[in-house]
Amino acid sequence: MIKKTLESKNYILHHLQHLQFDLNKFKIISPGEINNSFWIINLDSIFFSLILGLLFLIFFYICKIKITKINNNIVPGKFQIACELIINFIYKNVRDIYPTKSILIAPLSLTIFIWIFLMNCMDLIPIDLIPFISNKIFNISTIRYVPSADLNITISMSMVIFILIIFYTIKNKKIFNIIKEFTLHPFNHFIFIPFNLIIEITTLISKPISLSLRLFGNIYSGGIIFILINALIPNYCQWILNVPWAILHILISLLQSFIFMILSIVYISMTLENNELKK
């Protein structure tokens, strides 16, 4: 029993390790090696996030070039119908929140939704498959292939939204109005300036933190459950829990992608004026 417990523990810990690269020493960190240096990047998360982003671009590009015309009428194929459904869904939600046409919000929302959904769905791949392939081909056994289960990736994405918020806030409201808003809101009196600053700065910083932690927490916990099912349940019984959990995980992935997209639209649209970024 103790041996089985240790095997399960080692199995779980193994699947929670990233393929890390130390920028300071310029070398790949060995499995099990503890390194708390700041100059460490998770190569697996970066690699798979870029691959999925490229897959997203290729999918929509193929849809574009496969559009055929008969008598000057566009005949939609399967790719085009799938893309149109996604684009119409995104467009409707964007229009409900930000009715002004924008060259930023709609494309950004589409990218966020599809990219995060693809990253979340990587959890549906059998957890031993990619590590097994990478071990056979590249002799790399420690690899995690769900980018959104890496806090570094979710924070990076939320920081991009945060930078856009800061940029368009400064561009549209100007520095003087921003200072005035931070010091005299919500309490319009000079005595409450310290309290106003604390409230406004906390509100601003909480936006990227909430975006990143919400996505990371849900996807990371889902991955942990898949690992636990594989580690603690015999192979012939795993499908009993894996199949219903996989269905639930797809719904969670859609929901988390949608929430991240909607909150990004709301945060950025609050900084834009009605005439900003019009076509």
* Helix amount: 55-70%
CA radius of gyration: 23 Å
The low-confidence runs, each spanning 5 or more residues with pLDDT under 50, are: 274-279
Number of strands: 5
In sequence order, what are the helices and strands, one letter per element?
Answer: HEEEHEEHHHHHH
Mean pLDDT, as a whole number? 84
Roughly what fraction of the amino acids lie in strands? 5-15%
- Please indicate the count of domains: 1
Give the neighbour order of strands across the main sheet.
2-1-3
Structural class: mainly alpha
**What is the CA–CA distance across the termini?**
66 Å
Helical region count?
Answer: 8
Largest sheet descriptor: 3 strands, antiparallel
Write a concise keyword list for the protein shown above.
two-stranded antiparallel sheet, mainly alpha, disordered C terminus, single chain, 5 strands, 279 residues, three-stranded antiparallel sheet, 5% strand
